[in-house]
Amino acid sequence: MENESLTDDETQQFRSQVHSFLTEHAHPDADLASSKVFHAKLTQAGLGGLVFDKAYGGAGLTRAHDRIYREEAAHFPTMSNEFIISHGMCLPVVNDFGTEAQKVKYLPDVIAGNTLWCQMFSEPGAGSDVASLQTKAERDGEEWIINGQKVWTTLAQVSDYAVLIARTDPSVVKHAGISMFILPMDAPGVEVRPIHQIDGSSHFNEVFFTDVRIPVDHLLGELNNGWNQATAMLMYERVAIGTAGSGKISQPNYKMLKEAAEANGMLEDLNVRQDLMRIYSMETAKALVALRTRAEMQSGKAPGPGGSLGKLFSSVIQWRIRELLMNMAGPCSQAWDPKDPHGYDLAKHTAGSFTASIAGGTDEIQRNIIGDRVLGLPRDISVDRGVAFNEVKVGTQR
Description:
Blueprint lengths: L7 H18 L6 H13 L18 H11 L10 H14 L2 H12 L5 E4 L15 E5 L2 E9 L9 E7 L10 E7 L5 E6 L8 E12 L3 E2 L5 H17 L9 H12 L6 H29 L8 H23 L11 H12 L10 H12 L24
């Protein structure tokens, strides 16, 4: 909907409605099951998919309402961590590029949390250079046949659908022959293998496709326009990651580190105090950038390369946090007693911090995007520009 200003009474009334709902339904330590229940109730209360059309299961409200919701939600435990991809990336992409029939069929269940979606981009031979992907989709009458592999697919093991990109024309340059599809995760030939992580979880997955058949109308957007659509999805992803919790200026990691310093008796150490204030300042700056990014989107602008600023800064903060945790907690920052949940939290944060520089695009890719599209610096040299993909020796293609 168009961005509309609200009267003071309308603002206060909506803020009160959101506050009352979150007070009743938002609680700490939400798992996937409770998050699904939360989003179902959110939709029933007229607060799900705030800016999406009512015809597609949204609330049909304005971006001003969305801003108010985020401001209030920042004061409560988050109930949407498992839905960052489903709501922050897949939902807007299907809304932007889907047919009317696709939007009517899929969006209401996405918004209400009835279905969970994942994103399938990265492959063993196409990580940072996603355009080198080799998973292929071939037309066979009224079906597409998909063969290949994806990796690092978050929550694939519990997702109902995926937004997948595959090569549909290898005879053109690598960026031009890619298309986007809606993939039911229960389709015959889809095999999901969880990746066991160092912190004990299995958040990521390998996914294999063996002669997977999907209806021809599962093409999302235009044939061979998948790279442009994937770029838009990546922008949504970086905004979702870089502006998470951006309803207000906050310093959640600073608070966590301060508590750890107090517990270890190191809060009076001058070096630790200086490091804590550095984290505080960086988180404050990140929150301000996130608020600006969200404000641009609320004004009706599509997410642009500026989203990489927040995503990259999030990663830099995590590197700083890891160093500080290791200095303060020593071995306990990496190994933990299973009987000590607080110790596990610290170790999990240390181990998990490495993913910040990979998920959503590596730090190097973000710096390239910022340099190229934000600062206007010369692009990196490309040796495969203008070369048909089937003539390129790239990744695992020989």
